[in-house]
Amino acid sequence: MNGLTPGFADAGLTPGFADPVLDGQATFRAVLEAMSRPGRVQRAGSALRPPAPLNQAAAAVLLTLADADTGFAHDAGVAAEAWLRFHCGMPLVPGAQAAFVLATGTPPALASLAQGSEEEPQAGATLVLQVNALTEGTGWRLIGPGIETEHRLHVDGAPAGFVAAWAVNRASFPLGVDVVLCVGDRLAALPRTTMIAEG
Amino acid sequence: MSTTLEGYNFAYLDEATKRMIRRALLKAVAIPGHQIPFGAREMPLPYGWGTGGIQVTAAILGPTDTLKVIDQGADDTTNAISIRRFFTRVAGVATTEHTAEATVVQTRHRIPERLLREDQIIVYQVPQPEPLSRLEPRRTETKRLHALADYGLMHVRLYEDIARFGHIAKAYDYPVMVNGRYLMSPSPIPAFDNPKMHRMAALQLFGAGREKRIYAIPPYTDVRSLDFEDHPFRPIRAPHACALCASTDTYLDEVITDDAGGRLFVCSDTDHCAERQATAQEAAE
């Protein structure tokens, strides 16, 4: 058995994108904009009904970017796994080797994920991190490429010690992990170049 | 309205290829100036005609985009017209010749004179993405030099120009440091355009088809042209006014008009020049 059949039945398997080409394009542009302007909140996946605990934005990001070429690790449970693997067909790999890591609960330590190498820093992982709320204009002060002076972003549900772990991630540039923060149908990104200051 | 070609996916490339390019683009934005290998596809035009830029454009383009394509600043050259027509046929997108109306600008060898905005993306066609290629032909070695941020070779090359000619004799493809980390080829834009890359409001994406590399500069990112304290970088421009719009602060092309040494200088950015002429005419009436 390929492991997909039980999940298919359990989850009732809701559809992916209604229009995989154009919805994928719109989601990609949202992620590209988020990655280019860290801390600005974009919308993606409003029409999706992914199985819990997967939220719409995280589902949209993975439908858009993950496929058979991208190793995947997650903590989202059987139903979400079946849904994602049915729609994207990505292989499951250990967290340290994954190109995409989905965290719906407490995420693995940033330093435990793929960092890339000095010659190929692009092999660093993308962490899709589900949080409770994203609010622009308050909270963290973000500085770095893509930001004219500073962007402010309040992240409710960021894991404990994230800012300190992020400073370490930032310091190892060009190596490191990039993060896409997702809640509901909204997302924001933290590329590895972004500096976070609190308060 | 538009007659989109039957039998092709939206924007020509298949979805798996777009995903691969999109993943490369996102990592390129996260690591400004770093070249990322990608599996460039065969396109229905030869290498050197902008296959890298076209693939990047195809991966980002959506039905609501308005595309502008320029070749050496001009909207009306064969290459620019062909690429615009290509995307009209395979994606049904609107096209424009006006910089202000475009959401995506694909360019060969120029940056428009008009300042680009936050809601625009500029895609560069790149023939040789490796700034060190003329100095170190081995890819394995240049990768190592980028990893170590060892750019002494390029400084020596610029110094040799100063020793020989008294100035840095590089008028186009003038190397830049991106975000203080990676040495990057700006593609063969004139050195005159280099300052426009510095802290540009628009996202800048670069695609090299034959060399199979993608790189990017996020908005508001430091882009510094390499120079020396005693030989600061100077953008070069022909010391003339445009023969059509009288502009003295734009990049000019030299046009030979006869066999007797006749010549004139005109703006390379045709849209900007036409706009200035129209404004001048309105003012005169």
TrEMBL record, chain A:
InterPro entries: PhnH-like_sp, Phosphonate_metab_PhnH
Pfam families hit by this protein: PhnH (PF05845)
Record carries keyword Magnesium: no
Recorded superkingdom: Bacteria
GO-annotated biological processes: organic phosphonate metabolic process
Keyword annotations of the record: Lyase
GO MF annotation terms: lyase activity
Protein name: Carbon-phosphorus lyase
From TrEMBL, chain B:
Gene Ontology BP terms: organic phosphonate catabolic process
Cleaved signal peptide residues: none
Record carries keyword Metal-binding: yes
InterPro entries for the chain: PhnJ
Gene Ontology terms for molecular function: 4 iron, 4 sulfur cluster binding; alpha-D-ribose 1-methylphosphonate 5-phosphate C-P-lyase activity; metal ion binding
Pfam families: PhnJ (PF06007)
EC number: 4.7.1.1
Role noted for this protein: Catalyzes the breakage of the C-P bond in alpha-D-ribose 1-methylphosphonate 5-phosphate (PRPn) forming alpha-D-ribose.
Protein family: Belongs to the PhnJ family.
Record-given protein name: Alpha-D-ribose 1-methylphosphonate 5-phosphate C-P lyase
Origin species: Neoroseomonas lacus
